[in-house]
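Exercise 7. Given the encoded structure of a 90-residue chain, write a plausible sequence.
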């Protein structure tokens, strides 16, 4: 049986969790993040739950705000929507 325990608050985010958080900060939906990163929708939901737990956040907006406050995300690290939504050459 696999463990469903959530990581304690204060645990550092993984590289993938930071990628997911950057895309959430950019306003992408869970489905769009999954497509962009080539992951399943359920994997994105799992990453977000772990992010919320690690940051002790109440939800998506709170997690993004905390990430900026704590220096996990910097304004330059969040791509503009045009950088992530349009395929190259368009």
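Solution.
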């Amino acid at each position: 049986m696999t463990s469903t325990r959530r990581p304690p608050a204060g645990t550092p985010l993984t590289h993938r969790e930071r990628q997911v958080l950057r895309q959430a900060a950019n306003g992408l939906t869970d489905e769009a993040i999954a497509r962009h990163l080539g992951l399943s929708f359920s994997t994105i939901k799992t990453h977000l739950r772990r992010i919320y737990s690690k940051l002790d956040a109440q939800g998506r907006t709170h997690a993004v705000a905390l990430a900026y406050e704590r220096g996990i995300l910097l304004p330059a690290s969040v791509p503009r929507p045009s950088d992530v939504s349009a395929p190259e050459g368009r």
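Remark. The domain at 15-74 is CATH 1.10.10.10 (Arc Repressor Mutant, subunit A). Students should compare their own answers with the one above.
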